[in-house]
Inverse folding.
């Protein structure tokens, strides 16, 4: 949408309950769950299962909230592909497997680009995920140019996990731009986007070597 810092969105909300009034996102922890009774292996497996459940829950939530949105490409790719792609970059390239980080990556555009609220994110995904989504969400009450300026200014001050999400988000978008210019864009606008992204990434340095090297490669290749 044009009034969003997100230039790739070509909007909609999903209720928290289904037609029968049942919660779409109930508490996933079993009623007899007792962490103290688990041994070290059990604790590891339980954490893995909880993280997996959280990520799958976030995937479903993101798909519902972005369900009518498309990317700005000639194929009209479903927008949620971007959210999934950001999470995939984190796991496949950055080797990040933390459930909260991956869930927030999947949800990072829900508040900014749909009618989702932070209260919903908090209710369904907890404080840590909500805080990460907040760090990745621009203030839509500000002009677009101001929001882009603040992304540059605030980059270095974000938490480590939020920086990871931002790096993966930029990498996905830049690769998309390199592959094909977004619909409605000019080569000049695309080049300006790369220059702005380079400024943001500069403030995120020291977060993850693999992501930073990949970003340097795509940025330098395009701007050379």
């Amino acid at each position: 949408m044009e009034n969003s810092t997100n230039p790739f969105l070509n909007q909609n909300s999903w209720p928290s309950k289904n037609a029968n009034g049942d919660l779409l996102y109930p508490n996933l922890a079993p009623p007899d769950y007792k962490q103290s009774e688990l041994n070290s292996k059990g604790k590891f497996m339980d954490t893995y299962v909880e993280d997996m459940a959280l990520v799958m829950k976030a995937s479903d939530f993101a798909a519902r909230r972005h369900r009518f949105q498309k990317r700005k490409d000639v194929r009209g790719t479903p927008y949620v592909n971007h959210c999934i792609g950001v999470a995939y970059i984190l796991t496949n390239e950055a080797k990040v497997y933390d459930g909260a980080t991956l869930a927030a990556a999947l949800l990072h555009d829900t508040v900014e680009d749909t009618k989702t609220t932070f209260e919903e994110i908090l209710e369904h995904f907890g404080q840590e995920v909500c805080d990460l989504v907040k760090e990745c969400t621009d203030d839509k009450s500000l002009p677009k140019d101001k929001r882009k300026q603040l992304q540059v200014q605030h980059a270095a001050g974000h938490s480590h996990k939020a920086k990871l999400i931002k790096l993966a988000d930029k990498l996905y978008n830049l690769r998309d731009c390199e592959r094909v210019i977004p619909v409605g864009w000019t080569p000049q606008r695309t080049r300006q986007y790369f220059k702005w992204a380079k400024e943001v990434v500069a403030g995120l340095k020291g977060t993850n070597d693999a992501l930073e090297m990949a970003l340097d490669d795509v940025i330098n290749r395009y701007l050379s």
